[in-house]
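<goal> How does this chain fold?
<sample>
Here is the protein in question

***
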Amino acid sequence: MALVDDIGALLRDLPARGVAVIETIVESVHTLFSGDRETRRRVAFSVAMIALSAKMAKADGVVAPSEVAAFRQIFAIPPEEMRNVFRLYDLATEDTAGFEAYAGKIRTLCAEGEKHCRLLADVLDGLFHIAKADGVVHERERAFLHRVAEVFDLSEAEYLAIENRHVAHGEAGDYAILGVMPSDPLPKIRERYLELVKENHPDRLAARGVPAEFLAIGLERMKAINAAYESVAKARAAA
């Protein structure tokens, strides 16, 4: 089932105007999908991407056509659901609540008792994918994304790994992507690289609630991880 099919009922039940929208969303998700944790996680991911993409666009001040195209790459939206999805997007821009309130509620919705929910890192990855669609991640967008990572309780190392997959920072970025130190021996770096390959296998992504539409971004993530390891290994061999 497509992600937007899962959230169709939720979107149709939202209020007409953007007041305390995120509170209504969280309550509706638990009501509509009680007893089905997998669907709740999938819906939480979709709400996070739609609402926080809208908040990011508002923070930057400009919604570029390329960013809308990137948004639609993540969501395979059937024509009959297009109006509902973009209605939530518009409501999020109108809501008086700031993006931090949205991020906090979404953290609670995604984690559901877990100390650390990997799905939140996937959300941030998707937001970076949208932010860079116009060719550059602007300073306001980076400040927004860094603050979202803090609200999600992601470590600085986790944030830098995601940022460097989308914004090139040379050799230092390669180490950040892999989550290792330049002083680490190559066997340790390779061990971490193999862990990342396992963590980002499509089956692992699906198991933690990432929708099928997102898997294309997962492939981009793996390309960045592979390229970073190859670059580090090549530099070590030449030293």
In short: The chain has 13 helices and no strands. The radius of gyration is 18 Å.
